[in-house]
Amino acid sequence: MSSSNNVLVLNCGSSSLKFAIINPENGDEFLSGLAECFNLPDARIKWKLDGSKNEASLGAGAAHSEAIKFIVNSIFPQKPELLDSIKSIGHRIVHGGEKYTQSVVIDDSVLKGIEEAAAFAPLHNPAHLIGIREAFAAFPHLKNKNVAVFDTAFHTTMPKEAYLYAIPNELYTKHGVRRYGAHGTSHYYVSRKAAKLLNKPVDQTNVITCHLGNGASITAVKNGKCVETSMGLTPLEGLVMGTRSGDIDPAIMFFLHDNLKMSVADINNLLNKKSGLLGLTGVSSDCRYVTDHYDTDENAKNALDVFVHRLVKYIGGYAMLLDGRLDAIIFTGGIGENAEEVRRMALQKLSILGFELDQERNLAARFGKGGTITKDGSAIAMVIPTNEELVIAQDAARLTA
């Protein structure tokens, strides 16, 4: 090992788990992987170790616990010195409520806080708690070296006009009902990377960052700080997502309840797990299905058109919040980094803001490659592969040094 101060990063999503062992100083990855398709028949894990790619089945219906056990019992024995090199564990946490505005070392009170905020991130925080508790069990010698890195932290700079809902104020003051945002670690990373690529100081950089994946959100960053973001009290608000509806008329819920006699639990399940691209296509939550069938399946066409329409509305609105200067639009996340069709369709609709797509650059900036995708002299749009894991590793190392 070139470092004995590495960090194990666990990023437990609602249906997947990304993991890595990272040197926080230089970003070197000694192990990286993804366990996915949780709770499905084809639950599997993929990992890269010493340049070699591997894949295994986790067994039908497997989820976070099985994935972490596989990492410990099947991957680490292939290179025992990996375990010795880990000095801390960093956990991505979607929601910290108002309580957590920065990363913290995990103790019982933090576990309780994450649990309390689960009401705001019902698909994610419970998964994070499983990951933390499995990490405690698998690495007892590192129990006091687990760090929570909150997705909501970057958004705590939003002004009140951005985060307050127009509902009775006591719902905010007594119960914390407000807009919090998510994907903050990703928005933070790509906005900082954009400042470097634009050769501008962070505190003089105005960008709109689009994290587009199975979960999707967009953030307006003015002078390096978040001033608006699309996700709200929970990660359900905002853009169209893989299985989440994003913005809808709230009265739809009353209609479903009163006219279709759906229970509150069923409505919650419908909006979080059966809507978005899955709901519009009736077939798949995967953007690749939508782009592959755009010309042959009317539902797939509708799904992509709605996805892009919503994205363009947000970008246009957020451009007005940056005091007359938009330095760049940033695309990141699984869809943002790989779906050239989404970027092409969006930028064509944003020509009023001065964007001229360079399709050759757009096609080149995929599959792990970034770069500017607009023509020289045009307003700038770029693809920046996100690296939430590096941010998490750096915070974990800093707080447990």
Account of the 3D structure:
The protein has 401 residues and is of the alpha/beta class. The protein has helices spanning 64-75, 81-85, 108-116, 125-138, 160-163, 170-175, 184-198, 251-258, 264-273, 276-281, 287-292, 298-319, 333-338, 340-349, 359-364, 388-400; strands at 6-12, 17-22, 29-36, 44-49, 52-57, 86-93, 104-105, 146-150, 207-212, 216-222, 225-229, 328-332, 371-372, 381-383. It has an 8-stranded mixed β-sheet with strand order 5-4-3-2-1-6-8-7. A 6-stranded mixed β-sheet has the order 11-10-9-12-14-13, with helices on both faces. Strand 4 and strand 5 (52-57) form a beta hairpin. Helix 12 (298-319) crosses helix 14. 47% of the residues are buried.
Write a short abstract of this structure.
This protein is α/β, with parallel strands linked by helices.
Notable traits:
alpha/beta, 14 strands, globular, 16 helices, single chain, 401 residues
Rg from alpha-carbon coordinates: 21 Å
Largest sheet: 8 strands, mixed
Low-pLDDT runs: none
| DSSP, total strands | 14
Helix content: 25-40%
Number of helices: 16
Q: Please write the string of helix (H) and strand (E) elements.
A: EEEEEHHEEHHEHHHEEEHHHHHEHHHEEH
Q: Measure the end-to-end span.
A: 19 Å
What is the structural class? alpha/beta
In terms of DSSP E residues, the strand content is 15-25%
Mean pLDDT over all positions: 94
What would the principal axes of the Cα set say about the shape?
globular
**Numbering strands along the chain, what is their spatial order in the largest sheet?**
5-4-3-2-1-6-8-7
